[in-house]
Structures are given as structure tokens and as C-alpha cells.
Amino acid sequence: MVYPPTRSEPISDTLHGVQVPDPYRWLEDEKSQEVQAWMRAQDSLTRQELSRMAGRESLARRFRELFYTESISAPVRRGNRYFYSRTHKDREKAIVYWREGPEGPEKVLLDPNGWSQDGTVSVGSWVPSWDGRKLAFTQKPNAADEAVLHVMEVDSGQWSQVDVIEGAKYADPKWTPDNKAFYYEWLPVDPAIPVDQRPGYTEIRLHTLGKDPKEDPLVHPRTGDASTFLSSSLSRDGKYLFAFILRGWNENDVYWKRVGEKDFRLLVKGQRANYGVLAWKDQFYILTNEGAPRKRLFRASAAAPERAAWREIIPEDAEAALDNVAIVGGHLALEYQRNAATELRLATLEGTALRTVALPGIGAATTPEGLEDQDEAFFLFSSFTTPRQVYKLTVSSGAVDLWAKVELPLKTDLYTVEQAFYPSKDGTRVSLFLVHRKDLKRDGARPTLLYGYGGFNVSLPPSFRSSIFPWLDQGGVYAVANLRGGGEYGKGWHEAGRLHQKQNVFDDFHAAAEFLVREGYTRPERLAIYGGSNGGLLVGAAMTQRPELYGAVVCAVPLLDMVRYHQFGSGRTWIPEYGSADNPEDFKVLYAYSPYHAVRPGVRYPPLLMMSADHDDRVDPMHARKFVAAVQGAPETSAPALLRIEANAGHSGADQVAKAIESNADMYAFLFQVFGMGGPPGGETAGAR
């Protein structure tokens, strides 16, 4: 394959006595005309190659059947009004609706499909006021993280021309009980502030409707530390305001005050522990992994919230990890993970266990969403073979009723799900989900797609993903590994895959691949790996550490230059997860696995499809550019290394269905081509009705 010319420069840094070459540093400057021309040439080449691949158009037709769907989210109740989003078969973006009462007529609230001619402006978060008469929401150009906060009148649909707040990248509005104001996180948009320093400038402010946002009073100052996040919460009665200072994903401090008081006071200082707080009827409910890797729940009076006065009401479970807690219908709703699948339980506010909520099967469910004093709550459920369903929970009885579900052209009884456990390099037991057709032959020749993440305490439960079915119908196996670094098994699982233990994540992934080969599912040359963001780092490390073990790699919006990552985008906020090359001990670990620096001449790497986004303001796309340049420039690498760049898209990609169809058609056409698989004939598959 003839790639666009890419120059290499003799640039290197001496870090802690080590020479670190960086021949493609010039590709970090996205504003450079040379870099822009290089990006256009790379993307053009990739799209030409992908467009010629057999089966791509039939894949696109099949994805149109699967992606253009009628679906509904779990509703949010405020007053007697219900708010929810809905997707439609003839719309590119989800629309936010509301109705008066559970049976009232449906009314459009936010329809982003008409916000821009090219469809690049998106809805971010949306939060109705407690009486349901106003809505605070964010608009996000290019589906990026940067956002502008707006307020609208629900009944009239009119947007306020005064209540427009820039710097809403981290904004999560918390309405006051009188529905006249909200607290929010504000980030200055001053271009003089270096991008990598901006998180440390986040403030908590109070906005009163109708007033100039530039005059919003400061409630909590910035931390000044770019490696921290600052967030807030407000009790429903408006009496207690909390400020959370997060140092990565492993510890945080909690401050609180009674609204009207001037100063915050410390509730708890995080020492390698996380704390979340809910307040209801002058009681604080504190969820923490302090002294309990699988978490436990404490209760404390607002009159005496000192740590010594906390009373444990939900002890740590020896077999399941407590992920989240909500107060609904005068009860505690507890979301657990047992062997990486969701379990929902109900308990009294004193912690007395009542019942386990009946779920449709082994899968992934959300924490029930409801009000503290209302008997109804709603949650989502899905599994690998069950499209998303919305259930209504009657809290007092525990009754569960189907409220809405997605209908798709699939015969899900053709597929089966297994959970396997395998030993990692150091003997650690790791879980793995496997999805495939029931008539699968374990002959060692099945094309297999292995997915993983392994970081930031993020769990990968068995949830529905419609994009995998064309793969399954061609005899493919889809596998999801619950790697260390994730949150499936509590704090210890996360700790074992961060900082200087990061290599454990890659070892777990390699061991998953070896298990799939050993058990007769596939062979290395028939094994593809896929991951995005931190998962992109995972597959980049897997590709460079064990190139002989993998037959194809799809890497999306990744981190790959681990020596310089903290100088770009939101990188400094990830130092508690990865460490920093500024620290000598961290540098040794980072440089040892940094995929960009691990590309070597004379190594035959597997075919690579790199999927990047041009407006990714979370993980800088320089990672994707530099890595692709390094792989393309490595002698002896005859397998393709392609760079696909999604235009007008952020870290999560474009939120238009048509673009999701194109990106998935490209990804699976690439894999089908590599493995010699046939596409779904005529847009149909064996799973279609």
C-alpha cells in the first residue's frame, strides 16, 4: 500500500537519563497546514480502501435496519411531568419530549435535528426544574465536550435570551427548590489558559434566572490543580450543598455547608478512598470504599456528621460490589455487580434488607430513577441478546412492569451467551463474556472479536450492542473481557490495573486471547481486537507487545503516546490513573508500555484501522496520528495501517445515526476483508425476520 508521504525528524528528549525519540512530533500541531493536508490525505486513502471492500454496502444496509429504531429512555419525573428522550426510525438524533402525567399527550421539548444544517450541533445534558416548568440543558458543537448552557420554558418552548452560559463543559445544573436558580460547574473559556491546565480552573457558581451569567456569584473557588475535578450536588430540599474534589478515579474529598452559610466545611478527606453523599430529611447517606473494597453505606445526621459518628447501615458484601445507591419511594435502591452483571436490591432507609428486584435475566441494569417520596421508579435493562427495555418499579411492593422496549429485526434465540473464567499471567482469575450463534463449531477457525477497556474503574457489564449481530451471523464470536483496572470486582480490581500496575491490564488481555485460542474458538490470525479511548491504549499496547497473537486491530480515539499524554487535552486529569513522565518512577512504567514508542522496525504488525475524530477535545487526536505514522514508517510492515478521521465529531463520535452506520460499516468491512468473511447478503442475515 502506498501511503501519503510522512516525514520523520531526528527529535528526541532526554528524560531521567533516557533518550526518548519522537520522530513524528510535528504531527501534534493540528493547526499546521502541513498536518491538515496530511490528515486529509490519510483519511482520503482510508475511505477509498474501505469503500472498495466486499460486503461494505450490504453491511451498511444491515446497520440501517438495526440503528434506525424506535426507542425511549427511562423517564424523569418532576412535579407531575415526565421527561424522556426518544429515537425515531426517520431521525438522525434523539428528541427530548415531555408529557403532563403518565398518560398525557407527548410534546416535543428539544429537537436537535434542526439546530444546524449539517447536523453537528448536539444536545448534551438536560435537567428539568423540580416543578417541571423549566429546563436547563447544554448544546455541544461537533458533539464535543465543550458546551453552552441554556434555559427554556417548558410550556412555551421559548429559550431564554439572558440565561446563556458559556464554559459549560463540566456543567451539571442543580435546581433550587424554588425553581428560580441552579448551581453549576463553570469553566472559563479564556484562550490564554493552556488547554491542559483548564480543569483546574473549574468553579462552582449559582445562577439566578434572568440575571447576567457574568455576574453569577462564586460559591466554591477553583482548585488550581489541573489533575483534579470539581463537582457539586444539592439536596432536594435545598438545605445542603456538597462540593467534591476528585483526584482521579481512586479518591476524593467531600465538603458541605448549609445553604446560606458562607463557608464549606470538610466532611471527609479521601485517603485512597472514594465517597458519594445523598442527603434526605437531614440525614447523610455516604457510599464509600473506605475499608471496604466492594463498598459499604453509612448514615450520619446532618447535626453531627463527623466521621466518628457515621453508622454503617449496609455492610460490604463478600461476593458482590455495591456500585451505586439512590433514595426512591422512601427506600434505598442498591445497584450491585455480581460477576460483572447487575443485581438490584431494595432496603429500608435504616439499611434493613427487603428484597432483590426481579430482572429479566443476567444483564446490565441502571440504578432506579425516581423521587425520594414517590413510589414509582424506572430503570433500563439489557443483555447481549436483549435490546434495551425500560421497566417501572413499584418500590413499596418490588413489582416490576415492562414500560417500553426496543423492537429490532433480530431472532435473538439464535444466539447464546457464556461466561468463562481464565487465569492471567500471574494467576489472577479474570472473567470473560462470550456471545455467538448456538450452532457455533469450536473448530479453532471462528473469526473472533475481543473487546476490552481496563481502566478508570469502568465496568463492562453484559449489555446490548446491535452492531455485533452481522459479525455473529457470519459465524463470528464476540468476547468481552472484564480486565483489571475496571470496576467489576471493586476497588482492589481497579487498583490492580492502574499506575505501576498497568501492565496487569495488558497481561489480562493477552491471557483472554490465549484462552480463546486454547479453547478452540479461534486462531491468532482469526482474532481481532477492538477498544476505544483507554481501550485504545489497551489494543495499542496489545498490538505492539504481542503482534503475533492478533490478526487485526481496530483502535478508536486512543491514548498512545504515554510520555506526553498529560500535556494535551484533559490529560492532566488522568495522572492519578496513569502517572506522569515528569516523575522518574512513573516514567519507567509509562515508557515501557507506551505503544507509540514501542513500534519497532522489522516487526510484522497486524492490520490496523485507526478511528479518530477531528474535534476530540478529551483525548487529543495527535495520539492516533503519531501512532499511525510510526506503524506506516516501520520497515517490514506490509499489513495495512489506515487512519479514518470522523469530521465534526468529538470523543464519543458523531451522534448522527447516518455517521454511526458509516463508521460501523467501515469497521466491520475492514474486519471481514482481513478474515475473508462474506458480508450479509442483500442486507439480510440469518438473524433477520
Strand order, main sheet: write it out: 33-34-36-35-37-38-39-40
Q: What number is the mean pLDDT? A: 95
Tell me the total number of β-strands.
Answer: 40
Q: What multimeric state do the chains show?
A: single chain
Distance between the ends: 40 Å
Q: Please give the largest β-sheet.
A: 8 strands, mixed
- What is the CA-atom radius of gyration, in angstroms? 25 Å
Shape category: globular
Task: Please give the count of helices.
Answer: 11
Question: Helix coverage percent of residues?
Answer: 10-25%
Q: Which regions are unreliable across 5 or more consecutive residues at pLDDT < 50?
A: 681-689
> From the helix content, strand content and strand pairing, which structural class follows?
alpha+beta
Strand content: 25-35%
Task: List the main descriptive attributes of the protein structure presented here.
689 residues, alpha+beta, 5-stranded antiparallel beta sheet, 11 helices, 40 strands
Structural commentary:
The model is unreliable at 681-689 (pLDDT under 50). The longest helix is centred in the first third of the chain and has 19 residues, at 33-51. Helix content is 17%, strand content 33%. By secondary structure, it is an alpha+beta fold. The chain is globular and about 70 Å long.
